[in-house]
Fold this protein.
Amino acid sequence: MKSLLSKLLLACCLYSLSTLGGAVEAEHALMKKVFTDYNLKVRPARTPEERVVVRVGMILSSFVGLNMKNEEMSTIVVMNLEWTDYRLTWKPKEHDGIEVLRVPSGKMWLPDIVLINK
């Protein structure tokens, strides 16, 4: 009984590893397709007049300190930026149902945000 259970567990592990390999290949193929001819220096607008709406949000992560004498407050915040880049779209049915890709920020267009009051 133990050997049968061990063989079944081994078969399940091997199957899951083989399906993970397929997922990696599908994700790699999708990344290659989406980023072929993608220029991260070009603003994601169809026409020069079109606006790219960027939603900015900040979440207070932690309060570091308060210096009342100098009227200074130190905090750590997380800044969320959200916009739509029409060039980074695909049909999930054509790519093994992949709906989300995690992409390093250095590979895509980023809005120019300047923090003035730091």
In short: The chain has a mean pLDDT of 83.
